[in-house]
Amino acid sequence: MRLILLGPPGAGKGTQAQRLVHKHGIVQLSTGDMLRAAVAAGTPIGLKAKDIMASGALVPDEVVVGIIADRIEEPDAKKGFILDGFPRTVPQAEALDELLRKKHLKLDAVVELRVNESALLERVETRVAQMRERGEEVRIDDTPEVLSKRLASYRAQTEPLVHYYSEKRKLITIDGMMTIEQVTSAINRVLAALIEPESSARAAAPSGMKTAKRAAKKAKPAAKTGAKKAAKAAKKSAKAGSATTKKAPKSAGKAARGAKKAAKKAKSRTVAAKAAKTRNKTRKVAKKAAKRPAKAAKRLTKRR
Ligand code: AMP
User: Fold this and answer.
1) Which of 17, 137, 160, 303 has its CA 20 to 30 A from that of 289?
2) Is residue 217 part of a domain?
């Protein structure tokens, strides 16, 4: 599975990414963590990024795209990954599309955690106070002043990605103001519904299957169930005010279209069968009627 977690600083992307890592056995790729490691190690990238990060601005696109391009090549990313904090600009998203296209990899979904800004400032202030109390080191950019700057760059440069991925039918929006547990359940529900149609279709079409037609025939009911489940999960989450799929993700849409087609076909098959039955009946009645005058003539001759 390949996911992007989208949301302003403090929205809880890191926490939810960790949970997804455990649940799906995939890796979390956080450009923020990688850049902080580079700063700590004093690498050329770290030296370039240090002051930019401290100010709350964004590191140049080519730097982070280079980091991600190398990282997704590593063996532990083969099974899938969660991008946390990347992409943060439209050019980064376009570069990622190109990277994935070249590797024939598909992005499954973009999960946006939507939160309100005043709550974010409060969250960060509480977190910083707690860390100081525990004697832990506080991130240099985790101050209310720098956070305001990071939020401004999120609004200006990252928020356009909501539209970008919504257009691509990849966006799933979750209410990030719920408790951590509720956000996790909302994400799990939507992802389960999204992934299920594909795995059921794959299970229904083993590689040894003789014809593509047979495979498609078997996969259709599974797709139908999956699409139904996805719609149900989205409905359930929307009811709870937790998740909305801006546009139905492509796979769910595809499955629903497939199911619709199959249902239409089945219906037309039933109508055709009924028509054939009626034709047969009519033919039999006509035959009987044709025989009747002959029988009557026979009876008459007998009487004479
Ligand atoms: P984060 O830990 O994701 O909040 O990132 C901390 C800082 O690292 C950000 O404020 C940026 O300065 C930098 N950074 C992380 N990811 C990116 C990215 N994708 N593009 C540009 N700068 C980034």
Assistant:
1) 303
2) no
Q: Does the predicted model carry a pTM greater than 0.85? A: no
For residue 92, the ligand 1 atom closest to its alpha carbon is 19
> Residue 266 in contact with residue 220, Cβ under 8 Å?
no
Best of 5, 35, 90, 140 for a ligand 1 pocket test (most atoms within 8 Å of beta carbon): 35
Is 139 catalytic? The answer is yes
Q: Counting atoms of ligand 1 from 1, which one is nearest the CA of 31?
A: 16
**Residue 119 belongs to a domain:** yes
Number of domains the chain contains: 1
- β-sheet bridge partners, residue 110: 4, 171
Q: Within a domain: residue 260? A: no
CATH number, domain at 24?
A: 3.40.50.300
- Residue 152 Cα to ligand 1 midpoint, Å, equals 13
Q: Which domain holds residue 48?
A: 2-177
Kindly state whether residue 197 falls inside one of the protein's structural domains: no
Q: Is 304 a catalytic residue?
A: no
Nearest to 196 by CA among 227, 165, 167, 174: 227
Q: CA–CA separation, 224 vs 243, rounded Å?
A: 22
Q: How many CB atoms lie within 10 A of CB 95?
A: 20
- Mean pLDDT of successive 10-residue stretches along the chain, which has 304 residues: 94 94 94 95 94 94 95 93 97 97 95 90 84 86 86 95 96 94 96 73 41 35 42 51 51 46 50 50 50 49 44
